[in-house]
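During the reporting period the student researcher (J.K.) took over the structure-prediction task from the postdoctoral fellow and processed the backlog of single-chain submissions. One of the processed entries is reproduced below for the supervisory committee.
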Amino acid sequence: MIRKLIVLFGLLGSIVSCGKQQVGDIKTYDGPITESDDVTTFISDSTRLKLIIKGKKHLTFTNGDSEYPQGVFLEFYDKDGGMTSTLKANRAFYSKKDDEYKVEEDVEVYNIKNKERLNSEELFWNPKKEEINTDKFVSITTPTQVIKGVGLTAKQDFSNYVIRKVTGIISVEDAVVQPAID
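J.K. obtained the following structure tokens:
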């Protein structure tokens, strides 16, 4: 009889203690909801190709943000379907709230027509404005000079740009400017 009472109280104690868990003790998952490898995304408008985004790994999150933790390579196209410029970086983050990409670590933008290359450690790209900008150090290599400065605003095809604070210009004769290869 005593043995049965001890077992009964033990069971009642375990049932009551299970009901005392605090809601605040439960942690919500904030990691990626999808993870994809070797991703190529084609973005078009009215059947015209505007952009291709390639990444070795792509993560998406519940709030709509995404990340390319192993690098990203973008190809920009004009209205006639010709590639105008490329952008590559070792990491990229997309903020859905701001509709803006942040690319960082060994960033390069290359304008195919003008054979001009921009290098920086961080850029922001706004797809709606079709604009890139940074407050960081930049180096632009053209066929005739290397321009260094801090801060930049440019069209996404890198056909037009403004350096906020030029820190140096070096003339170069017959420099060969080539884009990074994906």
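The committee noted the following: The chain has one domain: 32-171.
J.K. will present the remaining backlog at the next meeting.
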